[in-house]
Design goal:
By secondary structure, this protein is α/β, with parallel strands linked by helices. The chain has 5 helices and 5 strands. The chain has one domain: Rossmann fold, CATH 3.40.50.
């Protein structure tokens, strides 16, 4: 599975790569790089942080969907709250994961991909 991880915190990128070992993983730290990387790599999943240095990761969802429409978008944040989750889903996210739950990411990916396969069946 091809996965694009978007976060401006190097330690989160490193942790995500460790959790996602065995997958083709690409990283970006801002919206512009995330969109160009999504276009270039056509990831199956984009793991997107809400709070990037100078911008909201949620602003990347629509442009990522334009250049890579098949990509599932999982929003992650250290500020896991009902408001953050609601905002993520209303921005077009397919799933939401608090950063403290990154170790459970493989299970979240499996569930999301199974759901997408089920939805695409006739």
């Amino acid at each position: 599975m091809r996965i694009l991880v978007v976060d401006d915190d190097f330690s989160v990128l490193k942790s995500a790569r460790a959790v996602l070992r065995g997958h083709e993983t690409h990283v970006a730290s801002d919206v512009e790089t995330a969109v160009s990387s999504a276009e270039r790599h056509q990831p199956d999943v984009v793991l997107l942080d809400v709070l990037l240095a100078q911008e909201s990761g949620l602003d990347a969802i629509a442009p990522i969907r334009e250049v890579s429409p098949h990509s599932a978008v999982i929003v992650m944040t250290g500020l896991a709250s009902v408001d953050a989750m609601t905002q993520a889903y209303s921005s077009g996210a397919d799933a939401f994961v608090p950063k403290h739950a990154l170790p459970s990411l493989p299970a979240v990916l499996d569930d999301l991909m199974a759901e997408r396969r089920h939805q695409s069946e006739p």
